Amino acid sequence: MTTLDPHLHAEELHLLDSWRRRALDTVWRHPADWEHPATEAVVEAFVSGEDPSGAVRRLGEARAAVGAGMAETIDDLTCLFRTLGLPAEPELVREVAVGWATGAVVEPQEACTDPVTGLRTPGYLVARMQELYDAPAGSRPWDAHALLVLDVRLDGATTTTHVRAGAIVGSVLLDVLGAGHPSAQLRPGLFATLLARSHAPATLRVLRGRVDEVTTSRFTSFGEASQLRSPARTWLEQLPGEAALCPSLVESLRL
Predict the structure, then answer these.
(1) What is the pLDDT of residues 200-242, one digit of tens each?
(2) Could you give the C-alpha distances from 153 to 13, 96, 156, 191, 229, in angstroms and in order?
(3) In the chain, where does the domain assigned CATH 3.30.70.270 lie?
(4) Distance CA 114, CA 6 (A)
(5) In the Cβ-directed half-sphere of 68, how many Cα atoms lie within 13 Å?
(6) Looking at the domain covering 110-254, what would its CATH class be?
(7) CA distances from 23 to 29, 82, 145, 188, 211 (A)
(8) Residue 222 carries which DSSP code?
(9) pTM for the full model?
């Protein structure tokens, strides 16, 4: 457990303690990992009036180093803003996200992974779709697959909500589907997963239920539930008849 800096002033200690209690009560799952010199540096910056950007970015790196997810890291920072009685600043949410992405242990295919959601990029999803068309003559494996599309609609949502929703829904998709099903966020609030049609009905039910449960819980606690579609809208998109049309299908969904 990290020892608090004895040079922290009373105001800083009070803010640090209030932030910690709010985070542990609502979003932080491992109390022993919360205290860190990075949290103290963030508090010092806010209390002194200094630019907290660098400290917030280092906080993101520290959170990633102890295994916290992107969504948990952003929610933790949001708890600080709520403790201060301030709205979350989009610039600082981006800083903590960048810090988290820098500090996270990534796969070798990191260029194909979106650091915010943990999902694959749309380009990677297209490439996996096109692989289905490399099949013997007379075989049409693409007909046995589809894109499962999930829409939590973020029209008019803040930048902070965009980032948090991407991280939260991305985590749910990975929990439910695993890394074996290539998934991507096509635009804020819209996600697509390539899967076999035979698995689609059951997967669709489980995924929609889990996304609704998690997003309602996480966003209601921050008073942001109205910025998301609930229940989430889900549907299946048929794959095109040839590989060359896969990019157009994905692009049409992004519009």
Answers:
(1) 999 999 999 999 998 888 887 677 767 788 789 999 999 999 9
(2) 39, 24, 9, 10, 5
(3) 110-254
(4) 39
(5) 31
(6) alpha beta
(7) 9, 10, 42, 26, 22
(8) T
(9) 0.69
